[in-house]
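User: I've been going back and forth on whether these two constructs are worth ordering. Before I decide, could you fold them both?

Assistant: Sure. I'll take them in the order you sent them. The first construct and its structure tokens:
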Amino acid sequence: MATAGHRLGSSLGIRFDFNNFILWKEKMSMTIDINLVRFSNYDINTFKDDFAYITYDNISYGNYIRNLEVDLKASALKIPVIFNYNFSKGKIRPYFGIGFLNMIMISQNKNFVFESYYKRFNHSIPPYSIGYTARTGSKFMTPTNNYYFVELSYENTQSLDIHNFYQFKTNSISFIAGYSF
């Protein structure tokens, strides 16, 4: 098991908001996002398992890694489904939401091979992960009932494998800004 940290990446997506989907709870809404996310630099700090090996740019590394910067060149499709509580219905609408998250890997750097995962999944990053998300933010309404929004989001995902060694886990905090029409 490796401990590592991501650096800034980019995201582009579309958001579907469903307001008043529960008739008697007008402050509740549901949001479904479809985001294309790009993971770039990844710092591998240390290994916790003696049987983990990495190959990056045709160089093999064993469990002695203390610091290795890898360009994952990975793209993923993130699809969170979030249930929001809106604190007000005025021009500024703060909200809090929780939900679940699906992450599907679309592409990744073929020059980066995490051998234990590669033997099991034929990829260094497992192709599917599931998790949960929590976010808080505010909508700034326009006269045409469109809105700008800013939010802070926390996401926790892991691959679906019973064996603890193969559970690829990610945690991320994101700042998201956008416009809804």
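The second construct, handled the same way:
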Amino acid sequence: MPFNAPTPNQEQRASLFPPLHQLDGIRLEYLELDAELAKSGATLQFQLAALRGLGHEASLLTDDPFVDPTSSRSFIRCKLPSPPLPPPTHVLDIHFTDGSERYRVAVHGLLWALQCPPLSHLSQRPEVPASVPECENSLLLAVERLDIPCRPSWPLLHRYIYDGSPAALLEGLLKAPTASPLTSAKQTALDSLSMRLARVREVWIDAASLEMSDPSLWKTLERAWAVLIADLQEEVAREPSSREGHEPV
């Protein structure tokens, strides 16, 4: 693991946000782009901004993949989005390695290819087998497996991939966890801070597994970690005096 979030049961001390190994990032010349897009000369940043503005997830029509016997590639039929939204290009079959959960989602492959080097091959939509009949208002999308280490905080990173908003990511990282009515009375400030630190850690691990090199992403994670560590140290320093004030005389 890259680092461990402090917990109330262990000695509290200043914890530095772990340095990330040098990541190369994405270069357009290494991607297989559609001919029209390649000729346009659009920069990576321009393409990413345009895709984020149109980002959406289409509905899958079936969970049963069709396997092309000539290529052994799996395809799933997907409902076409309403115009003028562009159609998705792939189905991500996401497996979470910290448990048994998985789900499938239709995506724009180029949006992921521009941000995640291990998914650079998603820059073009694979050809649909000629043996598959066309179906009105639907299209066949290739299935790509994606292993993600941490399930609990994945929605934060998934949303960031689509909106690229450091402010929204920071808000999600710092937001106090929602406690059920049965546990809210017992939840301490230390518990809440430790859960949020674990949240930052999980997003770090997921982003590192995708080799994301976006500086804004890593600066936001580092900022959230620093804020929570400062709050944690303040809370730890306050607890002894708080306990002394409630001791019977």
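Notes on the second construct follow. Residues 215-245 form the longest helix (31 residues). Residues 7-14 have pLDDT under 50 and may be disordered.
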